[in-house]
Every structure is written in structure tokens, then in C-alpha cells.
Amino acid sequence: MINYQAPYRGKYKISCPFGKKGSWAAGWHIGNDLVGLESKDIYAIGEGRVTSINAHGKAYGNHLTVLHPDGKESLYAHLSVIKVKKGQRVTKNTLLGIEGATGNVNGRHLHIEVHEGGWRYPPKNSTPQDCKWLLDIRKLLLEGENMDKKEIPQWQKEACKMVCETKSFTNADDWLKKVENAEIPTWGEIFGVLAKCL
After folding, report:
1. 23 to 28, 44, 52, 125: CA distances (angstroms)
2. Could you give the percent of the chain with pLDDT greater than 90?
3. Quick check: 102 and 62 in contact, CB under 8 A?
4. Nearest partner of 179 among 166, 195, 193, judged by Cα
5. Which domains does the chain have, with CATH numbers?
6. How many distinct helices (H) and strands (E) make up the chain?
7. Which of 133, 78, 137, 82 is nearest to 109 (CA)?
8. What is the pTM of this model?
9. Residues of 68-81 as b/e, b for ≥16 C-beta within 10 angstroms?
10. Within 10 A of 188 (CB to CB), how many other CB atoms are there?
11. Which of 3, 18, 20, 83 holds its CA 20 to 30 A away from the CA of 127?
């Protein structure tokens, strides 16, 4: 399973969500419209290969697709500039382009779609339930976040409690939260613990 990432480095907002009904050819919004709040650079959501550039109609403006190893294909539309070429291998660190306002748009944004098994436009008057091959990127990103959250072994939590009780730490709850959230302590905290244990 691929751990997908957001196409922006930094904060962004959703200006039009997946599945919203409207005047689109399918009768609903088959992707998500995103607006970068800190940066307009657009990165690949996962490793793969650029399969097309400007191949899916003028409404998308400057756009490209990336095929990922798990068979999903992501589309990035309305770019002001495209920075990759067809056939190019990309990673999560590959700059694909810059958010723009090309094609059929009301303002600057990124329109992003994710298709299972390759790009195809849904039939007119269909619904998201009819088109299971179209995926909401928000769900993919949530799955990726959950993959990053590794379960902390119980013995580590118990060891933290034992040290805190034995050495009478007044901030035992804080240390337990750090262990449970897999937070990295600062050097000051490390030396503070060592000093207490000497």
C-alpha cells in the first residue's frame, strides 16, 4: 500500500469537495479543488510515472496524470506551469508544476482527481456511488496518516511509568504522552532525566 501525501508543502484548503453536485459534465465534482495557503508548488502525491500531459480536454487547462505502482492514476489540473515530461519517473519530492487558473476555472486552484485502474471520465448523471473507480483524495490522505501512526508497544509505556514513579517525576503524565505519541525529546529533557537518574 502506498502512503500518499498532500500535493502541497504546507497548509492548503479545499475550495470544492469531491462529490458535490453541480453543472459539470458528470453532474458532480469528480475531484477536489485545493488552494495552497503557503505555497503554490504542486508535488506528486506518490511515486510513479507521468502518463499524459494535456490529454483530457481544454476544460482542465494545463494538466497531467501520474500512474502509481498500485494502479491508481492521479490527475493535476489548471496548472500555470508544468515542470515534468511524459514518461518521466517521479517521487513525492518531484515538483510537477505550479497552481494556476488555466482552463475552465473561476480562480486559481489545483483540481486533483484519483482514478483506480487508469483515468476515465464518469457517465453523465452518474453518482459517486456509481463510479467506485473515482477516489476522494481526502480518504487516501487519511489512510496515509493512519499508516504513519505506529502502535507503541505496551512495555515502553510501562517502562516510562516505572521510571517516573521510581524517580518521583512530577511531570509523569507529560512523559507518558511523549512516549504514546512517539515524540522525540529535546537534549535538555534527556539531560534532565539523566540527572534525576544519577
Report:
1. 7, 28, 26, 10
2. 65
3. yes
4. 193
5. 12-148 (2.70.70.10), 154-197 (no CATH)
6. 4, 11
7. 78
8. 0.73
9. beeebbbbbbbbee
10. 8
11. 3
